[in-house]
């Protein structure tokens, strides 16, 4: 049954890609905004109802950084669908799993008990690295997640870290890799109930709605509008993928950068400023009747 669902997803993407019309006005606005950026930028935007899109370096491969946690989410749910894992399943934390970067699990006490649902929530809401690495193991690693991406019609979206045969690619792109178009399509597939099936996609969607890191694109959208989102950050690459349940119809966008000159870790990082600018442009273009000007940031 699963293979037929995945086949339907590939057909869905194929049909979707060939039916879209370019939104020339939005493209011009985005091209103007990204001109002069000190690094490489890729942008993909798709209004699902209007079926209009913008693609700028949208098929170029970029590092995912923590956005790889979305393919990991799909991999975990594939295991759940097969009966190999359960959301209520308990696990015992070992302090040897402690890993730097974002997240809370690194501060767990040794032998603390947790469950799969909590680990997924930590991975997505707080971008928890310890939880993500653990979930990558439980999902079967890149050896399982990467074929799933292929079956979903996302051949350039891959887990590189701890994946046999991808050591050299890992050196180039890090933990994972994707394109702006493919990551936006993965969000769209989840929205459409096409990843595993509608039931599992619905649950994935609910996990993706809760975001601690809401200072980029989400800060440029009305707080009353529902979204799913995932950010990713390393020194020379910042990215974000967002799907917005807007009044005029859902739209999705993915903004990825790499080879960035500005490697700072502040809110004024050039790539993060650009991301906020593009999110504002996209929202106000699609929702002129609900024009939104972001509030001054709170420290």
Automatic annotation (TrEMBL):
Name the species this protein comes from. Answer: Niabella soli DSM 19437
The family this protein is said to belong to: Belongs to the class-A beta-lactamase family.
E.C. no: 3.5.2.6
Q: What is the name of this protein?
A: beta-lactamase
Q: What does the record give as the reaction this protein catalyses?
A: a beta-lactam + H2O = a substituted beta-amino acid
**Which GO terms fall under molecular function for this chain's record?**
beta-lactamase activity
* Start and end residues of each Beta-lactamase class A catalytic domain: 42-257
Q: Which GO terms describe its biological process?
A: beta-lactam antibiotic catabolic process; response to antibiotic
């Amino acid at each position: 049954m699963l293979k037929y669902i995945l086949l339907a997803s590939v057909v869905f993407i194929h049909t979707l890609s060939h039916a879209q019309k370019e939104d020339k006005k939005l493209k011009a606005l985005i091209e103007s905004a990204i001109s002069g950026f000190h690094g490489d930028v890729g942008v993909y935007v798709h209004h699902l109802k209007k079926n209009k899109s913008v693609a700028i370096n949208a098929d170029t491969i970029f590092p995912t950084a923590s956005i790889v946690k979305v393919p990991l989410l799909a991999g975990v749910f594939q295991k759940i669908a097969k009966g190999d894992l359960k959301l209520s399943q308990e696990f015992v934390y070992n302090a040897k799993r402690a890993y730097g970067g974002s997240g809370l699990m690194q501060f767990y006490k040794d032998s603390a008990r947790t469950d799969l649902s909590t680990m997924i929530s930590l991975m997505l809401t707080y971008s928890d690295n310890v939880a993500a690495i653990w979930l990558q193991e439980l999902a079967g690693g890149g050896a399982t997640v990467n074929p799933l991406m292929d079956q979903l019609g996302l051949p350039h979206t891959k887990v590189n870290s701890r994946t046999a045969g991808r050591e050299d690619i890992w050196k180039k792109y890090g933990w994972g890799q994707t394109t702006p178009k493919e990551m936006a399509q993965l969000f769209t597939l989840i929205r459409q109930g096409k990843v595993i099936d509608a039931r599992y996609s619905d649950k994935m969607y609910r996990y993706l709605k809760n975001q601690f890191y809401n200072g980029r694109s989400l800060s440029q959208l009305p707080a009353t509008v529902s979204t799913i989102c995932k950010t990713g950050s390393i020194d020379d690459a910042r990215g974000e993928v967002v799907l917005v349940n807007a009044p005029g119809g859902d739209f999705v966008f993915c903004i990825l950068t790499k080879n960035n000159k500005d490697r700072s870790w502040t809110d004024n990082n050039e790539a993060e400023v650009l991301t906020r600018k593009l999110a504002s442009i996209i929202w106000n273009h699609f929702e002129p009747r609900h024009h939104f000007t972001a509030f001054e940031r709170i420290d």
